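Summary for the steering committee. The consortium agreed at its last meeting that each partner would contribute one worked example illustrating the joint modelling workflow. Our contribution is presented below. We chose a case with several input lines so that the handling of multiple components could be demonstrated. No manual editing was applied between input and output; the record is shown as generated.
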Amino acid sequence: MSVFDIIGPRMVGPSSSHTAGALRLGLLARALLGRTPERATIGLHGSFATTYQGHGTDRAVVAGLLGMAPDDPRIPDSLSVAGREGLEVSFEPVDLGAAAHPNTLRFDIAAGEDTVSLVGASVGGGAIEVSQVNDRAVDLSGRFDTLLIQARDVPGTTATITQRLAATDINIAFLEVGREKRGREAMMIIQTDHAIPDSIVDEIEEYEWVISTRRLSKVTD
Amino acid sequence: MLTSIAEIIDRTRAHGVPMWQVVLTEEVEDTEQPEGAILERLDERLATMRSAVERGLSSDAPSVSGLLGGGAHRFDTWRQSEASIVGPFVGQVIARAQATMEVNARMGTIVATPTAGSSGILPAVLFTAANELGFTDDELVRGLLTAAGVGQVIVARASVSGAAGGCQAETGSAAAMAAAALTELRGGDPDSVSHAVAFTLQGMLGLVCDPVAGLVEVPCLTRNVSGAVQAVTGSELALAGLHFPIPADEVIDAMGEIGNQLDEKYRETARGGLAATPTGQRLATSVRWEGPGFENTNAARARDLAREAGITPDG
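What follows is the complete predicted structure of the assembly.
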């Protein structure tokens, strides 16, 4: 929690949770896909379901999917920009259960053959909490540069990655490793204090057990 | 991470520094950024806040829905007339609180302090203090730090989200932050700052979030006015040497507890309170944006309905 979370963000109105926070969730969903989506279905839970138009949440989410920052002056016009950039969006109310924060969004977005999903809440003042990535439980705040690595579940993968990062003086703030089933795919989520340079990500992608990587740049101060 | 006002006060005593310095030092330790870079960035945020106030005071442009627009300018003229009894300080606070909220409601650029829906309060108090009491921008940046410290404590103990804790969590927090900044700027010691927070927030407890038509307009704009005036009152009571018997941290905890008990209707769902009144519901059905773009053919109709119902479009 930085002072810039409280004195900020600098943003286009009207609502930090329904506009700026929603935009940041859109930015993370876009980063997860790795490019501008062509199709997006946005599920709106709780307060989002009833007030999303009034608060400009629709425009903000789409602005995030298009890669705009929270203070981008094109946000009010983002739905038109989406039309020009070939992004088709639909919004629908969803019920994610009583435990879900009242301002939660579910993204199902796609480009070409690639599809990703993300569930996250806008918890106030523009702060966000991502609780699911591709239907797997996670805990991301968007405050750290994050590297997601999808890998085959073989011994030594975590050690290899952490040693590689340590050799470059990149400090790991949080590390989470999980797998669907033994010996199959594992997901590594690495949140770092400093951005991981392209060259390191390229190197990691070369490891034969790495299936894919995704970099989520931090979206929150 | 700052988690209690009491802890901030302890650190001011331990190090012989004011509250804003405690918050700055904590930020340096948390983010490994140098003090100068943090102050410079806060100065940029201050400039955005000032620009929003100035645009809001000078423009009559309507909000996206057409429900608001021009109220800040009209009030600013009124408060300078002989008929007004409010006085220059509070008069300017009222005008400026409206100004930022009008800019926010037309999707202009503002700084969320701590949220966009409560973004009118802190700039209203700070820029009026600068205007009336001669504070420099460097001093106002210190005010932002003190305010941020209080905001961090509120996030740690309760919430600043209207959807989680009602309007008290948004405008109540903003008012408490503004009261702290104003009190320290005016020479209040850390105990006075703490009492200013308690006096201010106790008066905002229980306030629900019931936005008409789901818009950050009615009653958000005028709740920012109430919060800003409450902040001045809280600061005055504290500087007069009055003590609120419940410590600031416990008032914040009470706000969190009340927020948790608020029915969902009163947490930014536009299903209760003013939003659920016959007129509120009528506005909700008429203020809708269909399809892409910024043109809202229903805005004029919403304005007419509002007038018919006796709501002035100026908020």
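Strands of chain B lie at 109-111. The first strand of chain B starts at residue 109 and ends at 111.
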